[in-house]
Fold this protein.
Amino acid sequence: MQGHSLKRRLLALALTTVVVVWVGASTFVYFDAREEFDEVLDAHLAQDAALLSAQAAHELDELETDHAPLLHKYARRVAFQIWEGGKILRMHSANTTQRHLADIENGFSDSIIEGHRWRVFSAWDETGQFLIHVAERADVREELARDIAGNLLEPLLFSLPLLALLLWIAVARGLRPLDELAAELERRDPETLTPLDAGAAPREVLPLIERLNRLFTRIDSTFQRERRFTADAAHELRTPVAGIKAQAQVARSASGAAERNHALDNAILGCDRAAHLIEQLLTLARVDALDVGVAQSCRLRDIAAGEIAVIAPVALDKGVHIELPEGNEVTVRGNPELLRILARNLIDNAVRHTPAGTTVRVVVMQQEGLASLSVCDDGSGISEQEMSRVSERFYRPADTQASGSGLGLSIVRRIAEVHGAAVHFSRADNARGLCVAVTFRP
Amino acid sequence: MRVLVVEDDALLGDAIQAGLKQAGYAVDWMKDGVSADHALGTEAYAAVVLDLGLPRLSGLEVLQRLRSRNSSMPVLILTARDTVNDRIKGLDAGADDYLLKPFDMGELAARLRALIRRASGKADLLLQVAGVKLDPAAHRVSCREQPVELSPKEFAVLHALLLSAGKVLSRAQLEEQLYAWGEEVESNAVEVHIHHLRRKLFPELIETIRGVGYLIAADKAD
């Protein structure tokens, strides 16, 4: 499997958490135990000192030796000294030197003697005759606390591998829905775009499945649109070819010159239309594959004027006048080549659908911060129902006398799309023709 | 023979109309499904050439509506869609034949002839009654082995009567077969054509049933 493993990651996190909590608990126990020991053992020291002082007053003279023997294995770690008048060492445990165990004469203190830390309690006896030091090696306390904390940590060391194994099994079981999803996707061939079953999926995986299903739906509709487009393109090319062939055959078996010329003229017209259709198909294919690229500042009025100049001769032949009312230059950001194709198709479409002797109005303006290019014709217009369909590929309104490819507005819509612009259809002001407006976002 | 062509493409429709006229048919041309449906509901055609991709009402729907009116009018589908599925759909919807664009005008005319012949229940390529032979494909007529020159309209009247040999055709029915919609029909045109046919062939061939129409008797067939 590529990348990091979710299972391994979960296992590592869980184990780390267990270790951190366990060690934390042990540390807490260690410090807590030390504190408790300090208190208890300090109390013992004080008690011992009291005992010694009580005995010192009465029995010290009866003792033969000045140092007491070591009676217990821990005895090396406890010590005492009894100083008469604070100056003469009258009695001491075997493990002490001739020097004071502590510098102070009352209360608890810490001293370092022969490289060991000692906890010392010092006090004068009731008569004020003897100074008593009772000491205990400090490392005894640490040892005890460490032992207790260590006893806690020990089972962790042994149980960690077992814990890891159990966690691994639990994590694997918990992640089974993901494995199942992966297996299901693995089994699919790339053509299968039916939605995944979200029924049994856990809540955490559901968003993933929903996103995937949405993606599948979108890819599926794209595929279908592509297939439909290919089929439509073939259909659209076959019809003009059929027309040309039929006209040529009619011309061949025509009985008179007039009939033959009519058919031949129509065959040539058919070739022009087929060429136009092929041109539009190629444009659409190119536009489909393009995006804006590096957006440039484009002068919309300049572009419109340039395209009008190209179409004007054809329009004049047809008796159609194109006008572009004066106004300020409007700039939009986009791809100038695509915007030229957009303008050409809008104007060409209007010229094709308006009768002779009428005017096509091209308006470039900036209103409420929105730049727009609109083209209105004086044709017979189209119904509301058709307005929603005119930009479908190959759609031609019924009763149309014009010779369009049915692709012009699809090209316009596609270019508008990649520029984030909106295409709006409406009736022209004279309530007859069609207005197509492309509005650019600021 | 009067046929209906339903085709939305201006150039192709124009060519089919002209080509079928050359083949001797009277042709009505409709450019959308709704007008075609209307024409089929009111007029009697010998056959229909139907494009499938039509505005307003698809060719398949036009065909289904025609068949739902119990009409057995021969229908030839003309289409650019050539998957097996498309063909099956077309034929199942009630089409009699299927021609893929681009097609040959000669083939279209021949298939129409075959459809019309089959619809009339005649298996022979040549229509023969009482020594009169009519060859629809070659547009030739002979009487007792002698070739006879007929005008296109006379040929069409004789063709219609021979196809319905043994049945009476009214003057209106013959007119319908002769003229496309919008064509000028002279009031006594059918009588004139019948008169010429009787003169060029022989008078007894076509009988007049007064107040009803005309008849070529089938029992005279050999």
